[in-house]
Pheromone receptor (Mycena citricolor), 478 residues
Amino acid sequence: MLRFHHTDPTYPAFSIFACLGFVLPLIPLSWHMQAWNSGTCWYIFWSSLSCLNLFVNSLVWAGNTLNVAPAWCEISIRIIMGASVGLPAASLCINRRLYNIAIVRSVVVTKAEKRRTVLIDSMICGVFPAVFVGAQYIVQGHRFNIFEDIGCYPAIFNTLPAYFISAMWPVIIGLVSAVYCVLSLRAFSQRRAAFNQFLSAHNALTPSRYLRLSALASMDLMLTVPLASLAIYINATASPVSPWVSWASAHFDFGRVEEIPRIIWAADRGTRMGIELTRWLSPMCSMVFFAFFGFAAEARKHYADAYHAVADKFWAAGGLLGLQRPSSGFFAKHSTPSPSHCRFGEPKIKAKPTPLALSLPIQFGVGIASMTDSVSLSTTSRSSVADLKRANSLASSFPGQREDTTFDHFPDVGSPSTATTFVVTPGQASSLPVERPSQPHSPVFSVHSCSTLHSGRTEVSGYNASYLTYPQCGRTHV
């Protein structure tokens, strides 16, 4: 049995970095999909796919040039071809999106506009690389090459059409991306107020994320254009450019596979530089991407949530085996602050004057009415009906009266018997502690027309109880 020993001085370091380059960019993928960052998603796709391909090649062909997986090599060389323009194209889409944000003319972005952006990005980052890969057959001299310690590699022979079909496109894409980058920086400096207004209206895109996207695209731009230009220079000077004779001449003996030992390809300085730079570029792009987005505040929050979810399941399973979870320290159960922690006289939650996303009608003595209809009712009425979706309109429905509405937020069952009453006034909010009833039942929402209704004050209560009683108020059964 033959034994092969690797001669690559970077082995296994390259394999480790390629594996990390495949895994790490996938971690924030779901966050960018939720934010409709299609250009960033394509960047993740191409960098991860390229690193996976390089990782497999570095293991299979470490120290040998045997054609042990011809079908894989057919796939591998097309991944290499596609990634050579897919990564610059994704960077172009990122810069294009940043430019469109910087020149924003409308704060609201409709779903139709988002879908159109995704479609355009998919054409640039998906369809164009596929067409590019298909066109490489024109200048593909034979099936593929196998470089020792590198793996499968496209066999593009050095002829003049190859520079127009293959070599020039990364440079062109990089230059177009550079134009977008400069224009976005210029628009950002000129329209900063509109830019900040746009970001404030879109939770998925924060100023921090915008700057990180800009830095990622700019860094990728600084890598793409110089390296692609260097590759063109090396190809043009390392060996003579062969003339294009005919299709039959270019594809003569197309099925052959050239196996090139390291001692041969590494002896030529230009070939060695071109192969190694191309090889390390994809892991570098993946690491740069993760450095920008893998340690951000939202990423750390997701890591903490994932850890606590796994830890809860682990300790739940461990409890069946008699393991007891520590009450303090790193492995303690994670808890989040809740309104039940508020003490009497020390309110900690400030209500915002926004509509409640709940609607629960309550039977009125003579019919069904909404909160806004309660204006026409007698001020001595003991109960009314709440359409909580329109709760904020109540304050303005008492002309000449006090414009405030009181919402009571009660903590869950089992928490201390205190609660916070939110007195919502247009433009401001204050809080007052109230006493909590003691009988826990299913959640209900009720409205009390108190004796103070003449002053424009109505108390809207949400609490796990069958009824609520207030001083000077009637009792509403639910």
User: Anything to note?
Assistant: Strands lie at 144-147, 151-153, 257-260, 405-409, 418-425, 428-435, 443-448, 459-464, 467-468, 476-477.
